[in-house]
Amino acid sequence: MTATMPTEVSATQALVRPALRDAVATLEPAMRRIVGYHLGWTDERGEAVEGGGGKALRPALALLAAQAVGARPEPALPGAVAVELVHNFSLLHDDVMDGDTERRHRPTVWRLFGTPAAILAGDALLTLAVEVLDAAGDRTASRCLTTAVRRLIEGQSADLDFEHRATVGVEECLRMEDGKTASLMACAAELGALLGGAGGPAVSALGDFGRNLGMGFQLVDDLLGILGAPEVTGKPVLADLRVRKKSVPVVAALSSDTGSAAELREFYRREQVPSETDVRRMAALVEQTGALTWTRRRARRYVADAEAALAAVDPPAGIRAALAELTRFVVERDR
Amino acid sequence: MTATMPTEVSATQALVRPALRDAVATLEPAMRRIVGYHLGWTDERGEAVEGGGGKALRPALALLAAQAVGARPEPALPGAVAVELVHNFSLLHDDVMDGDTERRHRPTVWRLFGTPAAILAGDALLTLAVEVLDAAGDRTASRCLTTAVRRLIEGQSADLDFEHRATVGVEECLRMEDGKTASLMACAAELGALLGGAGGPAVSALGDFGRNLGMGFQLVDDLLGILGAPEVTGKPVLADLRVRKKSVPVVAALSSDTGSAAELREFYRREQVPSETDVRRMAALVEQTGALTWTRRRARRYVADAEAALAAVDPPAGIRAALAELTRFVVERDR
């Protein structure tokens, strides 16, 4: 099943890109070059790439949230840029921490420019995010961003911790993914509503929308990490199993009371790198425990909760449709 | 020559420590443990260490700057804590980037807890610094901090860049050290003055004081990196030459018009790791070019400029004496 980004979301990209470019333009040239490459704007030689750039899902969420509360998207731009910068700060550091050599079918920054450059580029984007939002002059918005960054770091820290632990519970794994992914998506929607001038209840409802959407997004990501084909995801097939990552479906499978779970736990206890046969067997075992079906169902529940949160805000029809499409994209995407 | 930290500076530590502990206490337990170790509060097993902790030079500067403009030190505490957190964020990431295995005679965080933990701990401290200062509610202060962080990252980026370049000018090397070190010390003093309620001219004069003091501090650090004994600096002897670091004295030596410089350039062009004999020869060559004497003189000039900037503020006698002692400590220290 392939899903493309809805038109309204693409429309927000036309606003976000120049604002993001303006922010990145304030970095010194060497850093700008690295960041431009990471963001897909330029190739390895620093030359412009046609149609480069990521999905920009978080900025779209911020701008649509502003419109959902009846504002124009423009006031939400600093929020949109800030969350995209934070997202990319975390990708740059994540790739170093996980030792990932490819992202979006290209060498990762640390692989191409070295680990120090990737660490510094991440640091620069985090600082830039704070600066961009600070310039909007809304202290609640600034606090919202730093709280989300804090949760993000906590989530990544828990993720690392899980690697070294024999058992991880499904609930704590969901909490980890809430920190790692959903918090920044909640923040994106909250920032849009805040900068759009909305009051507490609407900000909070849109935050709920973003958080549930983020959880749905992450669970789909987890499923793609087990099932996704490398030609579309840009990651090696069965990538998460290969490194014995403890994502939600894996944790659900490991903790299920089945014979398949027992065999899977055996694979997770081993020290050596799993062979191709091992990895395929592990995928089959996860499937047999029913964990994939359970995760798909859980993702749909998060999406339903997101839709319910949105209904409370009662956005204009066009924006409601765009957010509904965005939601569909999140669960139906294959990359 | 050994210099100890002046009493007034130690007195500021009594105020800063609990505030710093309160800030760190808001981190989640796993992160708190890593940060506590890094700050010297606990040992490798997480047990409290008597009299641990670094020099806390930057917080002292912030609190003394507030007192220099006639305020109490307490309002400057968020600034003092924020600069110390930023300083430690940069140390954590620096140790990863430089591959340094020891700091203050103990294994570095990446060495003990792994690179991912060190990267995340640095990210957490940077975020915490922004949060702590944001809570003080002074937007000029918040901007001052993010600008300093930006300069710090630019300085570190230039430092990395220099490693790969055949020639580096003395002026651009001084600019790099201004970014890497002096900007945060300027920021510490500015934050103290700002949070102490001072007006523009006093903030700016104290910023000048901090910047010049920071440059003096860094040049002394560069000299210690060439001359310092490992038992006091906690770094291997001739550490900077061993890794062919392009610090100011080295750059001054390399660019001098002497026979020693030509031989030194030859050492810097080589690919292989220098032998013990090589490193000692390199140190002798740097000395022979007159670069060490030049750097010492330059450091003294920065200190004189710092003193002149301070005179313009006309601080109370006790605070003036404390800042003078702090200044003396910076240039006379041997670690």
UniProtKB/TrEMBL annotation, chains A, B:
Its BP terms in the Gene Ontology are: isoprenoid biosynthetic process
Question: Per its UniProt record, what CDD domains does this chain match?
Answer: Trans_IPPS_HT
Q: Which InterPro entries match?
A: Isoprenoid_synthase_dom_sf (IPR008949), Polyprenyl_synt (IPR000092), Polyprenyl_synt_CS (IPR033749)
The protein's superkingdom reads: Bacteria
Protein name (database record): Dimethylallyltranstransferase
Query: Per the record, a Pfam family?
Result: polyprenyl_synt
Q: Does the keyword Flavoprotein apply?
A: no
Q: In which family does this protein belong, per the annotation?
A: Belongs to the FPP/GGPP synthase family.
Q: What organism is listed for this UniProt entry?
A: Saccharomonospora piscinae
Q: Which GO terms describe its molecular function?
A: metal ion binding; prenyltransferase activity
Entry annotated with the keyword Transferase: yes
The record's SUPFAM superfamilies line, in alphabetical order, gives:
Terpenoid synthases
Task: Give the transmembrane ranges.
Answer: none
PROSITE patterns per UniProt: POLYPRENYL_SYNTHASE_1, POLYPRENYL_SYNTHASE_2
Record keywords, A-Z: Magnesium, Metal-binding, Transferase
